[in-house]
Amino acid sequence: MAVLPRRFYARPALDVAQDLLGHELVWRGEGGTLGGIIVEVEAYGGADDPASHAFRGATARNRTMFGPPGHAYVYFTYGMHHCVNVVTGRAGEPGAVLVRALAPRTHLALWRVRRPDLDPLRIASGPGRVCRALGLGRVRDGLDLTKSALVIRPRARPGDAIVCAGPRVGIREARARRWRLWIAGAFAVSRVRGAAPGPWPGSSGRAPKRG
Questions:
Q1: Would you state the pLDDT for residue 67?
Q2: Rounded CA gap, 42 and 174, in Å?
Q3: pLDDT averaged over the chain?
Q4: Domains in the chain, please, with CATH?
Q5: Among 88, 95, 77, CA closest to 169
Q6: How far apart are CA 36 and CA 112, in angstroms?
Q7: Which long-range contacts (CB under 8 A, 24 or more apart) does 157-162 make?
Q8: Full-model pTM
Q9: Residue-wise pLDDT tens digits, 176-196
Q10: CA–CA dist 35, 43 (Å, integer)
Q11: 7 class by beta-carbon count within 10 Å (0-12 exposed, 13-18 middle, 19+ buried)
């Protein structure tokens, strides 16, 4: 299976976030292989981003963010959800992209078995649902996305896809940054709560400029 190379991740978080949309996150677990198209993400920086876990330096919880790019940073939040991120940038310069939503694609029957209580198209709509459906917990923190059971498979984004941008969700700092990105019209995009107010209608804000 072709996977995204490490050099893809060795760039600023916002650049990686924009380019991740449309690729396929694949988990080859004990119960079978599950794959979903990445349709929504959030970018986080390091010491320059007050909303980032890495803002105040390395801890036992976030140390994966400070390692080499192309690894999975999995954390537990709100006492109930796991979330999976892609580590970006260079070792020692933390950055990450939170995977907020997937559109199930590979082995749809297995997706339905994992979450029979949900609409099949919304099984991985939201970062907590992504990890719950795939069965990812803290034990998977640090997995190498270029050669482990968790990889990202390159796929061509549809030529008519529109990438939109808006405020990140559930944060208190740096709320004006339009670092939540999604593919317009993708049904699996999460129903956002707690987003900062602003002129960011769900289908009109284009992705921010790089750099």
A1: 94
A2: 13
A3: 89
A4: 6-183 (3.10.300.10)
A5: 77
A6: 13
A7: 157/21, 157/22, 157/23, 157/183, 158/22, 161/21, 161/22, 162/203, 162/206
A8: 0.90
A9: 899 999 999 999 998 876 554
A10: 21
A11: exposed
